[in-house]
């Protein structure tokens, strides 16, 4: 176990380093934009005097590294500053939205991951059968359509007919079952989008192993095809599968902008789009940092989990 | 043997898919095996031995099919019975021991759980009982630390031990028949003996019938009651072991015997200055020292065989000489001057003088290049040949390795046989016009007859070009055939070195003695006598 703890510590350090680099990139990118915050806030009404006054007030006259440091240390304590558009603390604006986004991501993952694994395992078990072909073709079609197209089809079929709401209105007092019901269509859309990738990787990773001598050995010991896939192939195929799942989970958190917009879902993606439209750069920065952290954390988890599934890495010597 | 046979195969045909066509692999083989009997199955690779062994379980690999004939196991027709019924037989009544235990154990599970799988699956034993039984059989197979070894993962156990654990696993349900598919081919001679003895004991003890597949006659002589010889999917002849060894009838069988007769003429000890001198070399991978104070010389026109088990440091010595692994201490002298330890610091001419041939010709040749490019590249790089001169050089090299230039020069490696690929490896080494060629187990992956051809070719080239060879091998028969000088290594140290006559003539260092006495001989009583002698 000792070696694993060291590895986790190393990966954490590496992840932190990545985040710092990302934060520098985010900060510099907004620095490169024409104009600055003060002119963005004042817009048309800016006079040289008001601009200078606001710049002094916002600390914009400090050198970039100083401002970066202030921003980063604030962000680490959960203080992302104040929104330029609404003058409210960004942390407050983000908090509820982040909860909604995570809820939707988990909801979609809870549908998509088991579905993808079961379909992938069955497709590997019955490879080249009708089932395999239908599952593959279905998954490929789902991934080929743009998300908004799938979303509108679902709205047409399941919302226009009155089964599910097409707009999601979440309030702090919405009960959990109501949340599940109201968010069903966006979750289903996301499920359709991410399942194919995970399913095909599961299938490929398992089939890749089916030519291994130890699989032949299992067959010659009299193991059934299902047992061969589940007990002999799957444990050795977990590492690539876990990595694809992590990548898709990250996508579910960070890539759902379109789906949120279609269903008017009050998540981070919506907020980011709104903030970009309003040139609310402070909010965009904060959300970008959160998205980057989600990516780094999930990939870190995937690395650790795939190591744990491999006895050759766990128990050396 | 008056009882009905355990296994009968009649007029069996197995085909393998080649693109659109089905090509025959087994062509009308008959086989009869009685209870408790061991049948040896001999042939080169591609003879269909494994296919026949698997067919005895009613099994054909993906891309193969049993197309005709009858397979009857204890009254059950394996060709017509259902897949489910066959699954009930496999592992329970017919078990299989694969060639590479390291690849045939599932890396994700502990040995003892893999042992228990078949008994649990077939409802023969409960888990606790199976574990108990495993430990008992591990002990019978003379595995070290039988109480504990089953709780390791395959990668934590050595190859020889895995092979024994796999035999124990095959025994788990006390089957009536075990198919051994080259179970000792991948092992060192000293390990092979232990595995052979353990397998023979346990098969006799439980009265299990066995089909023992191998390409090594001397091995099968120790194990089998009867021997069947296959060639390209057809039977050459079958007889009981002693008859077969004493009086083979067919020419092909006799040629299998003859392979071991090639021997290079004795040469007197070298008196000239060596090309390469290894001086007091110590080398390490990280903190693990793999070579300890190793010194030996290589002379022009002579072959130095470096012998030892895997892990003895043979290949590491080659890596130090070529500069791939700079040593921790010591130096390599070329014509008396020290070479830079790292190959990147050596001049092109220094690099040119020492070339390598590898064990796996398959992976050592770039599959996307034609032979013209493979052989031409070193000639262009080291000798600066271009255009016509380069083409003539490549053609001359192909002639040297006895491949017809016109029909071979534009082929890809995939269009060659294993032996031909190894010849290309030789031509590529020769293309640089070297003085020393390091041959790293170059014949280990080849059949005996093909091996013979390669050895003869190397010998011919040596006398024509005055080459020096450093020949790394674990096969003492090869050493006897081609070496002038012998270096015996164990755990990174040289235990003995000298001319072939000196090393092979008694008295030996104890380890040399162990190595020499471990090489199987054709005598069917050899293993029994040896074990008796060693136990005294």
From TrEMBL, chain A:
Cellular compartment(s)? Cell membrane
Specify the protein's topology with respect to the membrane: Multi-pass membrane protein
Which PROSITE patterns has this protein been placed in? ABC_TM1 (PS50928)
UniProt key word Repeat = no
Which keywords does the record carry? Cell membrane, Membrane, Transmembrane, Transmembrane helix, Transport
Could you tell me the superkingdom of the organism this chain comes from? Bacteria
Q: Name one Pfam family in it.
A: BPD_transp_1
GO CC annotation: plasma membrane
Transmembrane stretches in the record are 12-30, 102-126, 138-160, 180-199, 237-263, 283-306
Q: Which residues form the ABC transmembrane type-1 domain?
A: 98-302
Q: Work out whether the entry's keyword set contains NAD.
A: no
Question: Known InterPro entries for this protein?
Answer: BPD_transp_1_N, MetI-like, MetI-like_sf
UniProt GO molecular function: dipeptide transmembrane transporter activity
Q: Which family does it belong to?
A: Belongs to the binding-protein-dependent transport system permease family.
Protein name (record): Peptide/nickel transport system permease protein
**Phylogenetic placement of the source organism:** Bacteria, Pseudomonadati, Pseudomonadota, Alphaproteobacteria, Rhodobacterales
UniProtKB/TrEMBL annotation, chain B:
Question: Would I find Cell membrane among this entry's keywords?
Answer: yes
User: Please, which domain of life does this record's source organism belong to?
Assistant: Bacteria
InterPro entries for this protein: AAA+_ATPase (IPR003593), ABC_Ni/Peptide_Import (IPR050388), ABC_transporter-like_ATP-bd (IPR003439), ABC_transporter-like_CS (IPR017871), Oligopep_ABC_C (IPR013563), P-loop_NTPase (IPR027417)
Which positions fall inside the ABC transporter domain?
7-257, 276-516
Q: How does it sit in the membrane?
A: Peripheral membrane protein
Enumerate the GO terms in the molecular function aspect.
ATP binding; ATP hydrolysis activity
Q: Keywords of this protein's UniProt record, alphabetized?
A: ATP-binding, Cell membrane, Membrane, Nucleotide-binding, Transport
- One Gene Ontology cellular component: plasma membrane
Compartment(s): Cell inner membrane
Is ATP-binding found in the keyword set?
Answer: yes
The text of the family note is: Belongs to the ABC transporter superfamily.
Q: What is this protein called?
A: Peptide/nickel transport system ATP-binding protein
Lineage, highest ranks first:
Bacteria, Pseudomonadati, Pseudomonadota, Alphaproteobacteria, Rhodobacterales
